[in-house]
């Protein structure tokens, strides 16, 4: 993944923020919407694109666009830096390939320990019974 190339492929859009804020919300476009086209990205290899489709499938739109919003701050510039950091973290986390799990055999000592505990419990329960004459 080439982060410098990916950063050039990002598209930003400033939108009016929603929620409380009074007059500032009505007149200032401080919310930043980041869009990234996964399919048309030149910075990602085909394997990386498939991995992103698999891991971020729920977050992608029908056109395979990744859309992130940020309206945490009143400053548009701060919102832009926050959303780009969040985007890069999301991409890096989703491109990590998990190691395949190796199936291991249960150790003989663990099996013997379990059987010994079962025998012990069985003997305790046998001793609780009334004796047969």
What does this structure look like?
- This protein is α+β, with helices and mostly antiparallel strands and 133 residues long.
- The chain is built from 5 helices and 3 strands.
- The chain has helices spanning 3-9, 23-27, 46-55, 76-94, 108-128, and strands at residues 11-15, 31-37, 65-70.
- The longest helix is centred in the C-terminal third of the chain and has 21 residues, at 108-128.
- It is elongated, with a radius of gyration of 29 Å.
- Pfam families: RF-1 (PF00472).
Summarize this, please?
Belongs to the prokaryotic/mitochondrial release factor family. The chain has 133 residues and is an alpha+beta fold.
Helix and strand composition category: alpha+beta
By DSSP, the count of extended strands is 3
Strand order of the largest sheet: 1-2-3
Q: What percentage of the residues does DSSP assign to strands (E)? A: 5-15%
> Treating each run of at least 4 consecutive H or I residues as one helix, how many helices?
5
Query: Span between N and C termini?
Result: 81 Å
Radius of gyration: 29 Å
Largest sheet: 3 strands, antiparallel
Arithmetic mean pLDDT: 87
Give the CATH architecture of one domain. Answer: 2-Layer Sandwich
CATH topology of one domain: Double Stranded RNA Binding Domain
Runs in which pLDDT lies below 50 for 5 or more consecutive residues are none
CATH class of one domain: Alpha Beta
**Helix proportion:** 40-55%
Shape: elongated
Instruction: Spell out the helices and strands N to C.
Output: HEHEHEHH
Keywords: Hydrolase
GO molecular function: peptidyl-tRNA hydrolase activity; ribosome binding; translation release factor activity
Pfam family, one: RF-1
EC number: 3.1.1.29
